[in-house]
Write a structure and sequence with these properties.
heterotrimer, A alpha+beta (149), B alpha+beta (155), C alpha+beta (316), B: 155 residues, alpha+beta, Ubiquitin-like (UB roll), 2 domains, globular, C: 316 residues, Uridine Diphospho-n-acetylenolpyruvylglucosamine Reductase, domain 2, Uridine Diphospho-n-acetylenolpyruvylglucosamine Reductase, domain 3, Enolase-like, domain 1, five-stranded antiparallel beta sheet, 12 helices, 41% helix
Chain lengths: 149, 155, 316
């Protein structure tokens, strides 16, 4: 499943970039992230909790930073997570691009390609899209609080 | 957590102690040895697990055993009386309403419930009632015919 | 399924006590057809199930204030077979009849279905078009919630965790009103719809102008969608085919379907327009049919018809 999201953030491009490259900081701002620990320079381990009505998914997995290109203001990461209880998994790749809109305004463009496997895949598709939108919105609000506030 | 439940199966009292997460189909098959009811899809769609609860068709794969407490369950084993097959069973044999047999217990239980409510259903009424009982072998023609002609075997 | 405790309260008070005891890890169970599937797949893992199955007096279907009151624990099968529902609200009986199979309908309750809030279900758009409300009861009391606005997201409603749907109320249908519910099922008869449309049309006494229109769609978003823009296009307008086609197009704009095995998003959008138009046509036919039946039943008409027969017989 592929989707694109974009958000306008009232923060200059460079400090926003620095913030986004700090994985633990980003993790704290992403709703549902319950733990993040570093394995090596490009690999992190973590838990993400996603709720949909009565369904609660406990996704445990790895995030691998695949690309980090400050010249192009572009980064990409791969995520592999499993919910052991529900016998399902989420595998995906996300790329982020920052576009300067003004002195203190940047557009964050997020392109995601994700596969939802197992039982959660059945209910997964519409839910993941909606949840991704909600998560991005909350993520941006959290960034604003931390950087623009 | 275990619960003691008492219910009637095919006219006889059944008293068992089951974990709360035991499904009715598993209770019938494993705790009571009534293996006539089959599990097909496990999600209530195929109808192979059809049993009657107080005369109404239900999916035993979606019913917790504890929900049967105090109720009357009829499985395929309960359709024949004193070794005499019921009209639906006789008709299925006469008119070839089954091939591999895996869906047949569900078909026969469902058809019995239909004829209880509507003794001479039209073809459309049969299709409407039986649409939740899937069959991979017969193409449904003989099932419908068996049900249409079952009244021939009624007293 | 993980192990859980199973409570069988006999009164609402006991239900509330059970929910309080186990807090957010408790789930209510009535028919269980949706819940048990999710529990089997371990998507939902409650530590306690509080069964509503032993509660009495919450499955009645009766006339109230000219409308219909249905208990939250009435099964889908009870609603579709009720002579009261079939006579007064045949469109609602039809919508409930469309749900899955008889086996599911024998267990699934009206309240449980609404609380489950799957946007592909049949009853919600029909109920929204009929202006239905639900009664939600907690230990603190009850409140009435219109179904239009009840569903907030996939599997999510405005219900608080300690609230139970104890009743459903469909208000009195105004005179000269026709209703239709259409389920587009290109796959199997027991499936959810690719697109579904419910339309309730109220005309003036001359049956020439649309006084009110309520249109709701299912399977085209994360909740059932009420097509208010489509309704606005019809209100106050003379009855004509072009108006229905326009309403269909406006309804299409309100949809946000996803592509899945029941159809692509684009196809579902197109079908939304088609089925809203067809539902409006059917609702209109319903009003006209009711008017014809009423006229035929009038004593003057009966006398006229009897005279005609007598005349014919004399000729022979």
């Amino acid at each position: 499943m592929r989707f694109t999201q974009s958000a306008q953030i009232p923060v200059a491009r460079e400090p926003l970039w620095d913030f986004l490259m700090d994985v633990p900081k980003v993790a704290k701002s992403l709703p549902g992230v319950e733990s993040v620990s570093k394995i090596d320079d490009t690999t992190y381990q973590g838990t993400l909790v996603v709720r949909v009505g009565p369904i609660k998914l406990n996704l445990q997995g790895k995030i691998i930073l695949e690309e980090q290109n400050k010249n192009d203001w572009r980064a990409a990461l791969r995520a592999e997570a499993k919910d052991r209880m529900a016998a399902g998994a989420v595998n995906g790749r996300t790329s982020m691009t920052l576009k300067e809109l003004g002195a203190n305004q940047t557009e964050l463009l997020v392109e995601t390609d994700v596969n939802i496997l197992g039982k959660i895949g059945e209910f997964g598709q519409p839910i993941i899209r909606k949840k991704a939108d909600a998560m991005l919105k909350e993520f941006v609000d959290n960034i604003k609080k931390q950087l623009a506030g | 957590m275990n619960k003691k439940i008492t219910f009637r199966v095919n006219g006889k009292k059944a008293a068992v102690e089951v974990p709360t997460n035991r499904l009715l189909i598993d209770c019938l098959r494993y705790d009571l040895g009534l293996t006539g009811t089959k599990e097909g899809c496990s999600v209530g769609v195929c109808g192979a697990c059809t049993v009657l609860m107080d005369g109404d068709m239900i999916s035993s794969c979606l019913t917790l055993a504890v929900m049967a407490d105090g109720h009357e369950i009829t499985t395929v084993e309960g359709l024949a009386k004193n070794g005499v097959l019921n009209p639906v069973q006789k008709s299925f044999i006469q008119y070839g309403g089954f091939q591999c047999g895996i869906c047949t217990p569900g078909q026969v239980v469902a058809a019995t419930a239909l004829l209880e409510e509507n003794p001479k259903p039209s073809e459309d009424e049969i299709k409407d009632w039986m649409m939740g009982n899937l069959c991979r072998c017969t193409g449904y023609y003989k099932i419908i015919e068996s049900i249409q002609k079952a009244h021939q075997f009624a007293k | 399924m993980i192990p859980f405790e199973y409570r069988t309260p006999k009164t609402l008070k006991e239900v509330h006590a059970g929910l309080q005891e186990f807090g957010p890890d408790a789930k209510l169970i009535a028919g269980g057809t949706a819940l048990v599937i999710m529990m089997k797949q371990r998507l939902v893992r409650p530590s306690c199930l509080v069964s509503l199955r032993d509660l009495r007096g919450l499955n009645g279907i009766e006339v109230e204030d000219g409308g219909l009151s249905i208990g939250g624990l009435a099964t889908h099968r009870e609603v579709e077979s009720s002579s009261l529902v079939r006579r007064r609200l045949p469109m609602l009986a039809e919508a409930y009849h469309h749900v899955a199979t008889i086996r599911i309908r024998n267990m699934a309750t009206v309240g449980g279905g609404l609380a489950h809030a799957d946007p592909n279900q049949d009853p919600p758009p029909a109920l929204i078009a009929l202006g239905a409300t639900v009664k939600a009861t907690s230990a603190k009391g009850s409140r009435v919630v219109p179904l239009d606005g009840f569903f907030t997201d996939y599997y999510e409603t405005v219900l608080n965790p300690d609230e139970i749907i104890t009743g459903l109320f469909i208000p009195k249908v105004p005179a000269n009103t026709g209703a239709a519910y259409l389920k587009f099922l290109p796959r199997t008869a027991d499936d959810y719809a690719t697109v579904s449309a419910a339309a309730v049309l109220t005309l003036d006494k001359n049956l020439k102008t649309i006084v009110d229109a309520r249109i709701a769609l299912g399977s085209v978003g994360t909740t059932p969608i009420r097509a208010t823009a489509a309704e606005a296009v019809l209100r106050g307008q003379p009855v004509k085919a072009e108006a229905f086609a326009e309403a269909g197009e406006k309804a299409k704009e309100a949809t946000d379907p996803i592509s899945d095995f029941r159809g692509s998003a684009g196809y579902k959008k197109e079908m939304a327009a088609v089925f809203v138009r067809r539902a409006l046509d059917k609702a209109l036919a319903d009003v006209r049919q009711q008017a014809r039946a009423k006229a035929a039943a009038k004593p003057k008409a009966k006398k006229k018809a009897a005279k005609k027969v007598a005349k014919k017989q004399r000729r022979r």
